[in-house]
Amino acid sequence: MEKLINQFELGLFFWQVLIFVGLILLLKKFAWKPILDAVNDREEGIKNALLSAENARKEMQNLQADNQRILQEARMERDTMLKEAREMKEKMIADSKNEAQAQGLKMIEQAKAAIESEKNAAMAELKLQVSTLSIEIAEKLLKDELSNKDAQTKLVEKMLGDVKLN
Fold first, then answer.
1. What are the pLDDT digits (tens) for 54-98?
2. Using alpha carbons only, what angle is made at residue 162 by residues 159 and 166, rounded to the nearest 5 degrees?
3. C-alpha R_g of the chain
4. What share of residues in the chain are helix, strand, coil (percent, to 5)?
5. If I label 18, which of 1, 42, 72, 136 is the partner at 20 to 30 A Cα–Cα?
6. What is the three-state SS of 113-135?
7. d(CA 48, CA 55)
8. For residues 145 and 155, is the Cβ–Cβ distance under 8 A?
9. pLDDT tens digits for 117-133?
10. Are the beta carbons of 141 and 134 closer than 8 angstroms?
11. What gap in Å lies between CA 23 and CA 37, rounded to an integer?
């Protein structure tokens, strides 16, 4: 280092400083400005990309929240629809049971009425046959008993005696 200090020349130093300052001015004018502009543009681009990424992340979170909300609403709506369907099914089954029961009771009542009607018709027919048979038997008996004159007289007297007693 001492050698450098001993060989120091002011003229050479002046020209080196002048060339260095000129080089710095030239670089400042022609190189630094474009380089700094490029660095600033790059820095601005990176900031914009980060902001865009942050905005995209926030938007994604909002979309996920919306998707969760929509999914929850869809599940609730599905549950509501299933509940309504079950209630409707149970109501339809109950209505069908009630209707079938009412029709069964109606059919039973109709069957009872038909049986009663058939019973009454059979009883009437039986009474008619019994009365016809009774008349035929009485007719045959009367013919047999009234075939002789003595029997006729006894029968008339007996009947007259019964009438007086009653």
1. 999 999 999 999 999 999 999 999 999 999 999 999 999 999 999
2. 140
3. 66
4. 95, 0, 5
5. 1
6. HHHHHHHHHHHHHHHHHHHHHHH
7. 10
8. yes
9. 999 999 999 988 888 88
10. no
11. 19
